[in-house]
Design a protein that fits this description.
With 513 residues, this protein is an alpha+beta fold. It has three domains: 127 residues, Schlafen, AAA domain (Methyltransferase, Cobalt-precorrin-4 Transmethylase, Domain 2), CATH 3.30.950.30; 158 residues, 2-Layer Sandwich (Heat Shock Protein 90); 148 residues, no CATH class. It contains 19 helices and 19 strands. The strands form six sheets. The chain has a six-stranded mixed β-sheet, with helices on one face. A hairpin with a 5-residue loop joins strand 9 and strand 10. Helix 7 runs antiparallel to helix 8. It comes from Brumimicrobium oceani. InterPro entries: RecG_C_sf, Schlafen_AlbA_2_dom, Schlafen_AlbA_2_dom_sf, WH-like_DNA-bd_sf, WH_DNA-bd_sf.
Length: 513
């Protein structure tokens, strides 16, 4: 992987490395970009010794030294490459160009733009042109019509993530205008506001026969988001078909795609129009409509490829803090793993996503038709094409990682034991992970008494993004013990890791037969 117009390498993080210049250049570049710390200019991976410390330093430098604020416009994550830890900084194209160094102001010495593989000083003429075009009506600049706002709901959600909002939270979360008054972001996050979030359910295929019309508005946008997610999840109940040999339960829509679409609508809606996103359920489809077409300068192809130009960087930052959204630009590509581009309809002022109702085939049937006959031998089976096909129904039965952590250890272990046979039948055997193979690696295997290595493997199958600490919490063992189980699973070639410790996922490996 060489350096390109969107990729920059830095061997290590030091005070002498002008990281701000590189980030500013990508913020001012229409496509954004990626910076890797721990890779030298030749592309050789040298690694980073203090991952957590360097990630904190990077966040502090970018927060402090770049104007306008770029919070919500970058992600910092760790990855593992060539058995070494590196840092990946994902930078979105900003909507308030030009960005520049606080120290030097809006000048050629302070503003940069990506040119090939270099970060070049931005000509003063371009600086002036971009400043003249800068959006003056972003929700961070609009004064809230109400200034008597409270944020108890928001504080509770942050506390749930182990973060306590201090007295400076309004400034830190960019809820204030330049004059120190609450802005429209604060209005949306407040316990009470005038924003109505409508969800309509119709009988039939048209908008004639309205069956339900709950309103989840007039409260913190975070709470409204969670309520819409819960309602859509409830509507996405499994459909059941019974054949001569078995009962098959399948959901009519992909839970993963719907979640991404709902969050995309909330985070990227153009609230300056005071028109909130809309959610509609029909007998044959779900429609999600958000206000605002494509962001300025972003083409449809760039949109589908995951190029990120956040319309509301303040909302993006809060939703990311609360674990509702993940990496910048990951939502649309994730939707496209389940639905085609034709599900997206663009207009000048709106974006509508339409998800047709469908019953999926059995996972092993899809594996045969979509993956073809995989070559025998040790290999990684495509995670996107196979593993995700069964995640929706498994996660429906098991709930979220958070829910499993709240349950008792006994309840979790019983649930894993109860589902072992079905997971083996419908999933493990497609990878050659048979009872015989498990017995060969871990000794006697029985659905009534499974070793922790296999329980760990089950959790990895159900939650590919799960961490060792979360597995330990669910199984009631220490993180160090889980690391031992994972080491054994890797040594026996059951799993491998794609990406870093915090942002990566687990992949199953096809076994030799």
């Amino acid at each position: 992987m060489p350096e390109t117009n969107r990729i920059e390498f830095k061997e290590k993080l030091t005070k002498e490395i002008d990281l701000e210049k590189e980030v500013i250049a990508f913020l001012n570049y229409n496509e954004g970009g990626f910076i890797y710390i721990g890779i030298d200019k030749t592309g050789t991976v040298v690694g980073v010794e203090d991952i957590d410390g360097d990630m904190l330093k990077i966040k502090d430098r970018l927060k402090t030294n770049i104007i306008p604020s770029c919070m919500g416009l970058f992600d910092i994550s760790s990855e593992e490459k060539d058995d070494k830890d590196i840092i990946k900084i994902t930078v979105a194209s900003g909507s308030e160009k030009p960005y520049y160094k606080r120290k030097y102001g809006m000048s050629e010495k302070g503003a940069y733009i990506r040119n090939g593989t270099a970060a070049d000083p931005m000509p003063q003429k371009l600086i002036d042109e971009l400043f003249a075009k800068r959006t003056k009506t972003s929700i961070g600049k609009i004064r809230s019509s109400r200034q008597d706002l409270t944020f108890e709901q928001l504080k509770i959600y942050y506390e749930g993530k182990g973060i306590t909002l201090n007295k400076n939270f309004a400034k830190n979360l960019e809820l204030l205008t330049e004059k120190g008054e609450y802005n429209y972001v604060a209005y949306l996050m407040a316990d009470e506001n005038g924003t109505s979030i409508k969800l309509a359910k119709y009988n039939g295929l048209t908008r004639v026969d309205l069956a339900e019309n709950p309103d989840f508005g007039y409260e913190s946008l975070i709470k409204a988001t969670k309520q819409v997610l819960d309602k859509i999840e409830l509507e996405n109940r499994s459909d059941t078909s019974i054949t001569s040999t078995e009962r098959i339960d399948k959901r009519p829509w992909s839970s993963i795609a719907l979640r991404e679409a709902i969050l995309n609508a909330f985070v990227h809606n153009d609230y300056t129009t005071e028109v909130p996103p809309k959610f509609e359920i029909f007998d044959d489809r779900i429609e999600i409509t958000s206000t605002g077409g494509l962001p300025n300068g972003l083409s449809k192809d760039e949109f589908f490829e995951g190029f990120s130009v956040p319309r509301n960087k303040e909302l993006m930052r809060i939703y990311k803090d609360l674990g509702l959204v993940e990496q910048l630009g990951s939502g649309v590509p994730r939707i496209l793993e389940y639905y085609g581009r034709e599900c997206f309809k663009f207009s000048e002022n709106f974006l509508r996503m339409t998800f047709p109702k469908a019953i999926l085939e059995k996972p092993h049937q899809l594996a045969n038709t979509q993956l073809g006959n995989t070559q025998l031998g040790e290999q990684v089976v495509d995670f996107k094409a196979k593993q995700k096909l069964v995640l929706t129904e498994l996660q429906y039965d098991f709930g979220t990682i958070s829910e499993r952590r709240k349950a008792s250890t006994k309840e979790n272990i019983n649930l894993l034991h109860e589902n072992f046979e079905s997971i083996t039948t419908y999933f493990m055997e497609d990878f050659g992970i048979t009872s015989g193979k498990l017995r060969e690696s871990f000794g006697k295997v029985s659905g009534k008494k499974l070793p922790n290595q296999i329980l760990t493997l089950e959790l990895i199958i159900i939650y590919p993004e799960i961490t060792a600490e979360e597995i330990g919490s669910i199984l009631g063992v220490t993180e160090r013990s889980v690391q031992t189980y994972i080491k054994k699973l890797r040594e026996e070639n059951f799993i491998e890791r794609e990406g870093g410790r915090k942002e990566g996922v687990w992949l199953l490996k096809k076994q030799k037969l």
